Amino acid sequence: MNKKYLAITGGSRGIGFSVAKKFIQNNAKQNLILISKNHEHLSSAKKKLQEINPNVDIITIATDLSSHSFVKDLNILKELSTNSNSQINGLIFSHGKSFSKILLSSSEQAIAENIDLNLTANMLLTKYFLKNFFLRPNLISKPSDEKDEFKTHQNTEKTDGISIINISSVIAIKGNMGQSIYAAGKAGLIGFTKSLAREIGGRNIRVNCVLPGFIDTDMTRDIPIELKAKFIDDMIIKRFGDPEEIADACYFLHNNKYITGQALTIDGGLSV
Ligand SMILES: NC(=O)c1ccc[n+]([C@@H]2O[C@H](COP(=O)([O-])OP(=O)(O)OC[C@H]3O[C@@H](n4cnc5c(N)ncnc54)[C@H](OP(=O)(O)O)[C@@H]3O)[C@@H](O)[C@H]2O)c1
């Protein structure tokens, strides 16, 4: 029997943790790979998730996704990649760090670190999983012309396939004072999502992204109360979102087999 794993970056806290919870609550057979930076946060998340479903297998990987060398820490998954009874059925990239400083005051190093974490890591992670899991021979259908890796071909199959979801941000399309660098990384994810959806769609892999508005997690906890009130005033639905509301959307995008290349905004109407 095939053991299915969903890999979630940022799965230790906030939106990523809510995504992990949603999937194991709704599918008793879903196993998880959680990738985040901090060991203790990962252990605590694993414990909480196993209290919900004691049978779920959870592999945790603590690594700094802002460093280009993080890929070597994924070697722990080598056994999984060679085990024909295991399969990764999706990736949800929910790691990230906000960066609030105007461009003029931002150092080159800070710019590079933020883009590395919020954009480059998604590309390197996707490439790693494509090469080591999704594009392995005999797992999924391949385009007929192997010579042209970008050749599009008709994918008319209604099989489960694989789903990749990038968590971007409404700031990517709306902009925000002091967040030009964060916005650039998050906007990059939208372009990456749409082009990648075309590049690998023929392999039965769907790629989408979600653009959350202000969500109640550790990331937004320190926003000064007056600023929070100003953001809320701009929203149609007058409150910050719950991480579960983003998790619901990820679950929907993962399971709907006819959506790809899309950017779904969930922001209480902030960007309208
Ligand atoms: N909250 C919002 O209002 C909001 C709005 C729009 C978009 N987003 C996006 O949604 C995603 C999740 O945000 P959140 O609100 O859930 O944030 P959060 O509660 O602060 O959680 C961030 C997650 O990212 C991980 N992470 C941070 N830096 C990392 C690094 N260098 N290497 C590996 N993992 C790292 C953290 O791991 P550790 O636990 O190990 O630190 C944690 O699991 C982010 O991409 C964020 O930009 C959030």
TrEMBL record:
One Gene Ontology term from the biological process aspect of the record: fatty acid biosynthetic process
Superkingdom classification of source = Eukaryota
Known PROSITE patterns for this protein? ADH_SHORT
Task: Provide this UniProt record's keywords sorted from A to Z.
Answer: NADP, Oxidoreductase
Molecular function per GO: oxidoreductase activity, acting on the CH-OH group of donors, NAD or NADP as acceptor; quinone binding
Please name the InterPro entries in this protein's record: NAD(P)-bd_dom_sf, Sc_DH/Rdtase_CS, SDR_fam
What does the sequence similarity comment in the record state about its family?
Belongs to the short-chain dehydrogenases/reductases (SDR) family.
Q: What is this protein called?
A: Uncharacterized protein
What organism is this sequence from? Clydaea vesicula
